Amino acid sequence: MRRLAKSSLNKLQHDDTASGFMLVLQQEIPSSAYFHIPFCLHRCGYCDFTLVAQKDHLIDAYLEAMEQQLSDLGDGIELKTLFLGGGTPTHLSIDQLQRLLDAVSSHFHLADDYEFSIEANPLNLTDEKIDFLKQSGVNRVSLGVQSFDAQVLKFLERDHEPQQIFDIVQALQSQIENVSLDLIFAVPGQTLECWKTSLAAAVQLNIPHISTYGLTIEKGTPFWSQQKAGAFILPEEDLAGVMYEWSLEYLESNALQHYEISNFARTGYECRHNEVYWTGHPYFGFGPGAASYLNGIRRQNHRSVVTWLKRINAGESPIADQEELSPENRAREAIIFSLRRRAGINVSEFAARYGFDLYDLSQAAIQKYVAAGFLEETATHVRLTPAGCLLADSVVVDFL
């Protein structure tokens, strides 16, 4: 894919039609793109993402719609980061993935120093598919492992066993070194020792990037109704907090730096694509439920796969929601995203970029949470403390 030659961007400016974009060449052109592949073999009970399970008959229609949407773009657009998410992108066959990548490479090419990520389910990664990903230019794989404990995997409705993870990761890293593992804590029945074992297993595999997420039960998921019916009880918040704090201590002691609330990486292995989101830079978003940020306007496509398909096929915009942010709202949003990063907010850089003084916007909130021990101030930055990371969602509300 990255062997494509560069060409002009003179087709990039167009109106807000089927693709939902209005780009102006004089303004910043995104160098990042996200493609949402909404297909899975099974919807896990906790999953709130845009996806359809057991609907593989829609894949060809999806690929055709994606080709149609991309046709409105020009060609030769250079990407520094490309991310295929889902759903489960590796649920697609090699031929289907090739068709999608052909459509992408017709309009985008990868910069010399690129990051090309794909989300994957362990059991989808046959040797043949790993080789295909490598040959296609994928250089980072985010693997939905979730746990190394058989009982936790069973509760989470995952289809792999702990031992299979070791075999698949080793096969994967023989071709693509940059592998990230997703792990979930605060699962019903999960003990602190069980969580420690999963973290130790990931470290044993010499993984350069780990994402840890506390289990949350979202309304509309199967787990939501099960919890309401009393089928299970989530662990106490105190235990969840201890698990999170252990993650910080243990992973950092193994050279995996805590660079974002849920993410740990060896130096140089931070997810560059996600950093685009957290630092407020523009990006393209394609597919059902995908979001984009272009020229200060946030847009999100319809989450319904069927609705997205119908709109694309009818030549209509797939966008469900959009918002043009005022300068002040852009600045406030930047505070919230920046606080996710452990580096926090560089006060002088914030003022230069957004035209607002951080303390003029948020002095009361900063003072409140510094006094509570959830924020700290340095000579140059404001950032969450480890205790603040535990309560980040509550803290950032006061900055809106």
Describe the model.
This protein has 400 residues and is α/β, with parallel strands linked by helices. The chain is 38% helix and 22% strand. The chain contains 15 helices and 17 strands. The strands form four sheets. A nine-stranded mixed beta sheet has the order 9-10-8-7-6-5-4-1-11, sandwiched between helices. Strands 12-13-14 form a three-stranded antiparallel beta sheet, with no helix packed on it. Strands 15-17-16 form a three-stranded antiparallel beta sheet. β9 (257-260) and β10 form a beta hairpin. The longest helix is centred in the middle third of the chain and has 17 residues, at 237-253. The radius of gyration is 21 Å and the shape is globular. Mean pLDDT is 92; it is low at 2-26.
Topology:
Blueprint lengths: L31 E6 L1 E2 L11 E2 L5 H12 L6 E10 L7 H12 L2 E13 L6 H9 L4 E7 L3 H6 L6 H12 L5 E7 L6 H13 L4 E6 L7 H7 L8 H17 L3 E4 L2 E3 L6 H7 L5 E3 L4 E4 L2 E5 L3 H9 L5 E6 L2 H14 L4 E2 H8 L3 H15 L2 E3 L3 E4 L1 H5 L1 H5 L4
Parallel strand pairs: 1-4, 1-11, 2-3, 4-5, 5-6, 6-7, 7-8
Antiparallel strand pairs: 8-10, 9-10, 12-13, 13-14, 15-17, 16-17
Helix pairs in contact: 1-2, 1-10, 6-8
CA-based gyration radius: 21 Å
Q: What do the pLDDT scores average to?
A: 92
Intertermini distance: 41 Å
Number of helices: 15
